[in-house]
Amino acid sequence: MKRQRENAIVFADPECCLGCHGCEMACAVAHSGTGLHQAALAGLTLRPRNRVVAAGGVMMPVQCRQCEDAPCAAACPTGAMLQESGQVGVREKNCVGCKVCVMVCPFGAISVKHEGTDPENCRTNGGIARKCDLCAGTGRDVPACVEACPTKALTLVDLEEYRQTLIEARAAELAQSLQHLKSRKARI
Ligand code: SF4
Q1: Does the C-beta of 23 come closer than 6 Å to ligand 1?
Q2: What ligand 1 atom has the least distance to the C-alpha of 16?
Q3: Average pLDDT along the chain
Q4: DSSP one-letter code for 138
Q5: Closest atom of ligand 1 to CA, residue 12
Q6: pLDDT band per the 50, 70, 90 thresholds, residue 41
Q7: Among 31, 62, 95, 117, who pairs with 128 as Cys (CB 3.0-4.6 Å)?
Q8: Mutate to test the pocket of ligand 1, among 25, 63, 151, 156 (most ligand atoms within 8 A of CB)
């Protein structure tokens, strides 16, 4: 079943990442439509939609940030990339694999890869744009990468909940400061 999540992203904490690539494997298997063993037996090429990178002295996976003003959606000449309900999705039937989205993505989070078209019988490579869909198409409640990470370096962050937590924390601090001020005034 397809699940849509509004205003949510996968957040990666580089301080916790081991660089084990488990999140990549989990992503690739989740989107393969089969299990790891079956995929290996069938000779399927597993394609993750995230990429673990080493940069600036840390390791961390990078994936789509579901940009609000998504450059990929603005640049796509066929309307295959679209920002809708807080997520950037790919309308696969419209994608011609021109790679404009790959070039404009600020995070390098989109790939266009060959999808196994029979080269004998087809004049095109058949590659289409792939990116993190927060596992919307896999029927999971939590993205596979988040579930698989052994160190909990990845979190599915609902930005509305996150914002609410921040607001409540700051409100509690302000209330405490006011109480402190009042008790000081009372002592003067
Ligand atoms: S599974 Fe976790 S620890 Fe391993 S590479 Fe991915 S984020 Fe890092």
Answers
A1: yes
A2: 3
A3: 90
A4: G
A5: 7
A6: confident
A7: 95
A8: 151
pLDDT of residue 118: 67
Residue predicted with more confidence, 75 or 119 = 75
Model confidence, pTM: 0.82
d(CA 106, CA 30): 25
- At residue 1, the pLDDT reads 45
The minimum-distance atom of ligand 1 relative to the CA of 22 is: 1
Nearest alpha carbon, ligand 1 atom 2: 149
> Is the CB of 18 inside a 6 Å radius of any atom of ligand 1?
yes
Residues 143-187 have pLDDT tens digits of: 999 999 999 999 999 988 999 999 999 999 999 999 999 988 888
**What distance in angstroms lies between residue 184's CA and the mean position of ligand 1's atoms?**
49
The DSSP annotation for 68-136 comes to: TT-HHHHH-TTS-EEEETTEEEE-GGG-----HHHHH-TT---EEE-----TTT-SS---EEE---TTG
